[in-house]
Description:
Transmembrane segments: 12-29, 35-54, 86-107
Pfam family, one: GGDEF
Keywords: Membrane, Transmembrane, Transmembrane helix
Protein name: GGDEF domain-containing protein
Number of domains: 2
Domain GGDEF: 129-278
CATH superfamily of the largest domain: Reverse transcriptase/Diguanylate cyclase domain
Number of helices: 9
Low-confidence stretches: none
Radius of gyration: 33 Å
Strand content: 5-15%
CATH architecture of the largest domain: 2-Layer Sandwich
Largest sheet: 5 strands, mixed
Strand order of the largest sheet: 1-3-4-2-5
Number of strands: 5
Mean pLDDT: 81
Shape: elongated
Helix content: 55-70%
Amino acid sequence: MRRNxxxxxxxxxxxxxxxxxxxxxxxxxxxxxxxxxNIIILNIAFILALVTYFTTVxxxxxxxxxxxxxxxxxxxxQTVSRGETIGISTYFWLIMVPLIxxxxxxxxxxxxxxxxxxxxxxxxxxxxxxxxxxxxxxNSISFQKDASLFTGISTRYGIPLTLLVIKVKYxxxxxRLIPEDQLSDAIYDVSQLSQSSxxxxxxxxxxxxxxxxxxLLLFTDREGAKIVIERIKYKLQELNEHxxxxxxxxxxxxxxxxxxxxxxxxxxxxxxxxxxxxxxxxDV
Length: 284
């Protein structure tokens, strides 16, 4: 409702600005001898409106106040020194110039409100999203939800649960060597490699896209996890020899850490990740 109101106000502000500009053009066209003077004042009105657009309404209104005093002083000078009468154009511009500024400010403030609302919605959507848009993998938010469920199953039924954390070695250096448009492809290829090495009831998560880090929740013990680790590294070696070296001009290496879930030592899903990441230090 609030978004619709802001959109309506923005549209009305823009429409009002166009109407005022049209009125000014019609007025200038029929101004006769004051044509040049009216064109100059219209340009001043646009300048004041642009200042308001790029700054604040306070700055715009302050400049409008200065314009009113300056223009008023100019009219008084002409009236006293030349004996000219105050014409309708004087009243027209004293009203129209501030009005153009106010209408443009209404349009600007509503547009900025819509932009801010759009940014908030984007952030909210990103925070609520549970799947990475490029790899279709579940992310860290999904991991926290699933890990709570899996650890509960592990504790209740006595099924061993192990978390693998996989990270590309020297990723910060590699991403400088790989073109930007290929980074997502590299992450996707490693994701597919990991996905093909696990069973259908195991779960793969993209924990950190910027650091190229994945998580694997396996219903197995440490010994079973070692088999998966060896399988992943063997497949990576094959891909390095036949595909990755030609596609990305570098060989990708992986660091893999594994921790079996223990309710006494692991307090929550984040603690599960932290403890597993520590094991990466031992995989060189």
